[in-house]
C-alpha cells in the first residue's frame, strides 16, 4: 500500500479504480483522489469493510448478496463482462490447436484452486480422491484438460493443460463443460456459453444468479455428498448431445438481459473527470 501511495502521490491520477479496493481505497482517502472499488465476493468480509468505508463509490452487481449501503452503486451484470462481452472478446477456434485439441473434438475443462486467498480460510475444496474420480468419469465423454494452481498428483499430471494460459478464455468458450473450484471461471463459462459446475461452501451471489436466472452454472458445496452430486451432474451434462447448443442459447439470453459493464465504467469515470474539471 505504501508503494502504491508513493506512485499515486507522484502521478496524481484523476481517479483510482480497482477490484476489492484494499489498496486503492486508503490511498485515495489520504490523497483526496476519488476511488471506485469493484467487488463481487461477499465472503471477503474484511476487505469489503475497509474498502467500503474508505472509497468514494463501492460498485457491485445487482446479485451481490449483502445489504445495499449508501454509496453502493449496483448494476445489472457481472465483472467478467468487462472483458468477455462480445464487444471486446472475439473467440478464435484456431487457438485450440495450441492446446492440442482437434477441430470438433469434445473436451472438458477442470479448474482447481489453491485456496490461498484470505476469504478461502477454512475451505478444503475437492479432495484428491474425488478429483481423480471426476477426471476418470469425465474422460469417458471427451478429452479432459486440467488447470490447477496447486501441483497435481503424479497420476493426474498427464491431464495438465499444455498451451498458453493467457488464451484460456478461448478454451472455455469451446469446452462442453467447465468443472471446479473457481467462481470467476464458472462465471466466465456462463458468459461464453459453456455449462459450469462450481463447488464452494459459501458460494457467490453471481454464480447463484447465473444458476437461478439462466441455468448455466450449477452450484454445490464442498461436502462429500455434494462432491459426488457435482460429478453426477457433470456426467448428466456430458451425456446430453445438445448441451453445448443449449448453453450457447442461454448465454445469448444472459447477454441480452445484462449490460455492457465496460461502458458503465467509462461513463462513471468521464462523469468524475467532468466534475473535477468544473471545480478547477
UniProtKB/TrEMBL annotation:
Q: InterPro entries, alphabetically?
A: DUF354
Q: Which UniProt keywords apply?
A: Membrane, Transmembrane, Transmembrane helix
Q: Per the record's keyword annotation, is Transmembrane helix included, yes or no?
A: yes
Query: Where does the chain cross the membrane?
Result: 15-34
**What is the name attached to this protein's record?**
Glycosyl transferase family 1 domain-containing protein
Amino acid at each position: 500500500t505504501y508503494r502504491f501511495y508513493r506512485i499515486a502521490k507522484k502521478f496524481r491520477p484523476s481517479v483510482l479504480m480497482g477490484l476489492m479496493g484494499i489498496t486503492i481505497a486508503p490511498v485515495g482517502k489520504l490523497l483526496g483522489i476519488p476511488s471506485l472499488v469493484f467487488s463481487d465476493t461477499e465472503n471477503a468480509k474484511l476487505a469489503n469493510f475497509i474498502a467500503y468505508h474508505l472509497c468514494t463509490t463501492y460498485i457491485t452487481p445487482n446479485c451481490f448478496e449483502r445489504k445495499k449501503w449508501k454509496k453502493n452503486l449496483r448494476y445489472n451484470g457481472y465483472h467478467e463482462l468487462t472483458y468477455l462481452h462480445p464487444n471486446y472478446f472475439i473467440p478464435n477456434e484456431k487457438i485450440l490447436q495450441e492446446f492440442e485439441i482437434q477441430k470438433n473434438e469434445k473436451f472438458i475443462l477442470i479448474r482447481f484452486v489453491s485456496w490461498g486467498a484470505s476469504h478461502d480460510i477454512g475451505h478444503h475444496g475437492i479432495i484428491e480422491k474425488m478429483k481423480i474420480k471426476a477426471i476418470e468419469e469425465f474422460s469417458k465423454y471427451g478429452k479432459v484438460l486440467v488447470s490447477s494452481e496447486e501441483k497435481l498428483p503424479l497420476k493426474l499430471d498427464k491431464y495438465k493443460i499444455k498451451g498458453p494460459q493467457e488464451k484460456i478464455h478461448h478454451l472455455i468458450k469451446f469446452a462442453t463443460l467447465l468443472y471446479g473450484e473457481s467462481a470467476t471461471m464458472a462465471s466466465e463459462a456462463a458468459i461464453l456459453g459453456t455449462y459450469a459446475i462450481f463447488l464452494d461452501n459459501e458460494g457467490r451471489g453471481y454464480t447463484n444468479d447465473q444458476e437461478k436466472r439462466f441455468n448455466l452454472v450449477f452450484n454445490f458445496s464442498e461436502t462429500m455428498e455434494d462432491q459426488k452430486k457435482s460429478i453426477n451432474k457433470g456426467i448428466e451434462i456430458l451425456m446430453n448431445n445438445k448441451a453445448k447448443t443449449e448453453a450457447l442459447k442461454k448465454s445469448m439470453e444472459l447477454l441480452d438481459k445484462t449490460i455492457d459493464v465496460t461502458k458503465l465504467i467509462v461513463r462513471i469515470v468521464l462523469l468524475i473527470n467532468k466534475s473535477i474539471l468544473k471545480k478547477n
